[in-house]
């Protein structure tokens, strides 16, 4: 068993993967840092169906369950506090959308309350989430 020395040709053929792994790792860190995380409203709802539903990204999610409880950021919010909570979330992301997720059994008054509060603080991009039928 003799040990053979590598020739210069064999050493030149080896590819050093360290720089490529460094670039991949830096890209991974970049995507993690710049990713937008969606804040869940916290209530399980069954969305109404619509034929014109389209997918949009949202930064502020408000849920209204079948017993007309309002949920924002996994917390039940009193209807008198909706505007204050929306102001805080909107100040964190002023370019964001507001999406109202309603249950089939929720009342239209709660949707109007949230949309009105959003309009008063300057949120112009408001939509209601539905399931595509």
Automatic annotation (TrEMBL):
Instruction: Name where it mostly resides.
Output: membrane
* Residue ranges crossing the lipid bilayer per the database entry: 20-38
- GO cellular component terms, semicolon-separated: plasma membrane
**What membrane topology is given?**
Single-pass membrane protein; Single-pass type II membrane protein
GO process annotations (BP): protein transport
InterPro entries per UniProt: ExbD
Q: Matching Pfam families, A to Z?
A: ExbD (PF02472)
What's an example of a GO molecular-function annotation for this chain?
transmembrane transporter activity
Q: Where in the cell is it found?
A: Cell membrane
Coiled coil, from the record: none
Q: Which UniProt keywords apply?
A: Cell membrane, Membrane, Protein transport, Transmembrane, Transmembrane helix, Transport
The UniProt family comment states: Belongs to the ExbD/TolR family.
In Swiss-Prot or TrEMBL terms, this protein is called Biopolymer transporter ExbD
Q: Which source organism does the UniProt entry give?
A: Microbulbifer okhotskensis
């Amino acid at each position: 068993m003799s040990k053979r020395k590598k020739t210069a040709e064999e050493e030149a053929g080896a590819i050093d993967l360290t720089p490529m792994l460094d670039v991949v790792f830096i890209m991974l860190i970049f995507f993690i840092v710049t990713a937008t995380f969606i804040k869940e409203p916290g209530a399980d709802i069954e969305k109404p169906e619509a034929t014109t539903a389209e997918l949009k990204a949202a930064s502020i999610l408000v849920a209204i369950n079948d017993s007309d409880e309002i949920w924002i950021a996994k917390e039940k919010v009193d209807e008198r506090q909706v505007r204050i909570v929306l102001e805080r979330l909107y100040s964190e992301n002023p370019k964001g959308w507001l999406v109202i997720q309603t249950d089939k059994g929720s009342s239209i008054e709660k949707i109007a309350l949230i949309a009105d509060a959003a309009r008063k603080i300057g949120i112009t991009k408001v939509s209601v989430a539905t399931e595509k039928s």
